[in-house]
TrEMBL record:
Coiled coil: none annotated. Keywords: Signal. Residues 1-24 form the signal peptide. This is PKD domain containing protein.
Amino acid sequence: MRRTFTAVAVLVSALVMAAGAAVAGQALQGVVSQQPVVWTPNVLDGAIAGMAVVGDIVVVGGNFTTVADAATGSRAARRSLFAFQLGTGRMLDFAPELNGRVTAVAAGPGGTVYAAGTFTKVNGDVWPGLVQLDLATGGRVAGFTSTAGPGQIRTMTSSGAWLYAGGSFTTISGQRRAGLARLSATAGVVDPGFDLRLARRDGGTVKVESVAVTQDGNRLAAVGAFDTAAGMPRAQLLLADVGGGPAAVSGWSTDAYTRKCKALYDSYLRGVDFAPDGSYLAVAATGGMAGPTLMCDSVARFDVTGSGVHPPVWVNRTGGNTLWSVAVTDAAVYVGGHQQWMDNPRGRKNAGPGAVPRPGIAAVDPVTGKALAWNPTHSRGVGVEVLVTCSAGLLVGSDTDQLGRAYHGRIGLLPATGT
């Protein structure tokens, strides 16, 4: 068994070296391994809220305080943010001082990373909600001047010259934006040509839970608590054309999420990701037990070509358990949450006809929408809130410590197989 683990570690190291950089959202050939590598560090408390890959470095954000080396068990104090090397798990000295939790991270240019959260100070200086940090020093990148609030950034992604941020904020760097903004990747200046004017008909706070951008940078998807965008009906899910000139809400739409799951949810959508070629997207949802006619507690595929109203291509329901996260590759649509089953449209927190057990993590066939045989298992807890693809495989972040039937403290990597 030890030889198997070592071979996996060597494989991942080779993949990283061959790629030159591990880039989030990269296409993976074949389904990733069910056996996690043994060298990822163990986070000993709290939960993971975000991960970003910068070259061969993984940056992890959340609300934790202590991280341990997987091989030696040696502990290091790391509040809310730390970094480790792909292929070895070696922790970096990177240890910026933040006085609050991190809710989102995104890769930055030139060996930097963006972090957002509830913090109001960075390395002792007043700097609320959003910062760009140098991975070599842990210091703030002085040229990036943006801050966040009031409200909170809940999701970020970087694409070319831009950083996209979504959340519950009403302003960012003093500019009014309801829940979604685009910033210059280098200076943090809010783009005046990007304002999708998200709104809720009940007058409540707009909240964007997840954003994704196609690899060519031309299209953006966002999910969350909103009913309209630029005055057009867009219930919980929108597409925008962002490739050139001022951004505009796409003519593509769906009415799949117009119906409520439970009154307590202002939005029940939690994750969104595009296919590597940008031809479709997948959406992960919570929502509660509502039977097979609604989109609650499900993952769904939508083709995104053309305009007009689009129904889902397929829907895979858990039978009453939350899905938090989704990551799409050529071979699979991966989902994470605290689900017990997939293929379970008639389940009501039990296994209905045809249900297959897939605790915490699952892979769905992109064409058929049925669960693949792949079943590493993950301890449930609140659930797997973070899935990130890179050339090395699938990074998994959560609040629990069992992945692949072995101890992995809140972080794991299921390595690429290359087949």
